[in-house]
Design goal:
Layout lengths: L2 E3 L17 H12 L8 H8 L3 H13 L3 E3 L6 E3 L1 H12 L2 H17 L2 E8 L2 E8 L6 E3 L5 E3 L4 H7 L4 H7 L18 H14 L2 E4 L6 E9 L5 E10 L7 H19 L1
Antiparallel strand pairs: 1-6, 2-3, 4-5, 4-10, 5-7, 8-9, 9-10
């Protein structure tokens, strides 16, 4: 998550599998879920992953295309997210209570710091960007709405994970000996190291990302918690490594934390 700019796994429904056959509607929904983690789908991989005939996969994708939920590339013949799916996603995001509460406040933080400020939410083991106030400087971090990244690789993710109970963390990371996914040499690769970062986050009220999600940028984040202790998301400030002077986190962290606390009071 995060790019510098100088100017499919099939998932089960959250409620578990139904006791009756899901049929074409269920297969269509599974295809849409597959598009969350894959930029494009081919009939052959859909057929294999859903264990349905290629003709059935093609027929369902054709219906989804008819209603603009997917688009087909005329050259590769692969299917990608269509405008209807994007419209639904953006509409859902815009009505999130935490986004409505945070929208102007993260822009205020961006105006004060000049750096890209984001609102993220937790979705299982991942974080999703649901609002972005792009930085004001020519060299800045750029993320898009809907960007998704493993939580343990991001400041926002670690900020939210730090408020989880041991049981909740065990559900997300059931094997304490399992190696975690890494993308840079600085990425957190073990549960033990993650636990150390979460302990620091609890102590400071904010946490950092020091090139763990990408080698060219850093971040500072704090969780948004309401008066009941419920975590609604996290505020992240992201900036190029070139501007991350010594002590940047101790300078920016309290500002991010105060913004997150203010958002929490209005939820």
């Amino acid at each position: 998550m995060g790019n510098l700019d100088s100017t499919a796994t099939v998932e089960s429904p959250r409620g578990g599998s139904p006791s009756y056959p899901i049929g074409s509607v269920g297969n269509a929904l599974q295809m849409l879920l597959m598009l969350r983690k894959s930029p494009a789908l081919r009939v052959t991989e859909v057929s294999h992953d859903l264990n349905i005939a290629p003709s059935s996969a093609h027929r369902i994708l054709a219906v989804l295309q008819q209603f603009d939920f997917v688009e087909q590339d005329v050259t590769t013949r692969a299917y990608a997210q269509g405008p209807a799916l994007l419209d639904i996603g953006l509409a859902a995001v815009s009505h999130l209570p935490v986004r409505q509460a945070a929208h102007q406040l993260i822009r205020n933080l961006r105006d004060v710091t000049g750096e890209t400020t984001e609102l993220c939410i937790l979705d299982g083991p991942d974080v999703i960007v649901v609002d972005v106030a792009e930085g004001l400087l020519p060299l800045r971090v750029v993320d898009d709405l809907g960007d998704r990244m493993p939580a343990h690789l991001t400041a926002a993710g670690k900020a939210m994970l730090s408020h989880m109970t041991t049981a909740d963390l065990r559900e997300l990371f059931p094997d304490p000996e399992e190696k975690l996914h890494t993308v840079t040499e600085r990425s957190i690769g073990t549960r033990a190291l993650l636990d150390q970062h979460l302990a620091t986050a609890r102590e400071l009220g904010y946490t950092t990302n020091l090139g763990e999600a990408g080698p060219e940028f850093v971040g500072v984040a704090a969780a948004i918690v309401d008066e009941t202790g419920t975590v609604h998301g996290a505020v992240t400030l992201a900036l190029p490594w070139a501007r991350a002077a010594d002590g940047f986190a101790s300078h920016l962290g309290p500002q991010v934390r105060r913004t997150a606390e203010t958002i929490g009071t209005v939820l």
